[in-house]
Amino acid sequence: SQTIHQWPATLVQPVGSPLSLECTVEGTSNPNLYWYRQAAGRGLQLLFYSVGIGQISSEVPQNLSASRPQDRQFILSSKKLLLSDSGFYLCAWSRGGTNQPQHFGDGTRLSIL
Amino acid sequence: GENVEQHPSTLSVQEGDSAVIKCTYSDSASNYFPWYKQELGKRPQLIIDIRSNVGEKKDQRIAVTLNKTAKHFSLHITETQPEDSAVYFCAAGILTGGGNKLTFGTGTQLKVEL
Fold it and tell me: Chain B 7-66, CB below 8 Å of chain A: which residues?
């Protein structure tokens, strides 16, 4: 069966520091991968998605970037964090193709001080 | 781009009653409509989904209906139980570049009271 791992679970970072969140998927090949941000009490906003190694689509202009160095690894990064980057970050995966369900990881709660 | 509106934002029902959550979408090209349940501090979990070639789908106490003409879809939970209390999100999906891109509603906080 497929599993998705995200870490760390929680992170407290000072403003201006760098960020690296990692997500890996097991049990499937060539998944579609997604990064979402969820502000407190709000819905999920798609930040990036990837259909293959090195292929990244950005959905909203922001202070973050994403990379996919391996088939089942998706990384969310920032060179300098802003206060507004605080939130709950969720990675998700789906099979490639039409109308495939997305399955979420446990998320990383990021607090910027 | 796609815009998904979800109502109500909060919903309280008595145990055993039914709960209905409604969503509308704007892009007629959307063809996939999942529903997620998120308990406090946890990951969203897919509970049911429907594709645009189907008008209704049911799984035990949960059902989803889709009206493509009106561009709205609804989640129905019957015989609600306390463990149904959570935030529910609808989403509309559109195929793009080989992957499905989902746009989520803002969520409905469902509280099932004893």
Answer: 31-32, 34, 36, 42-46, 49, 51
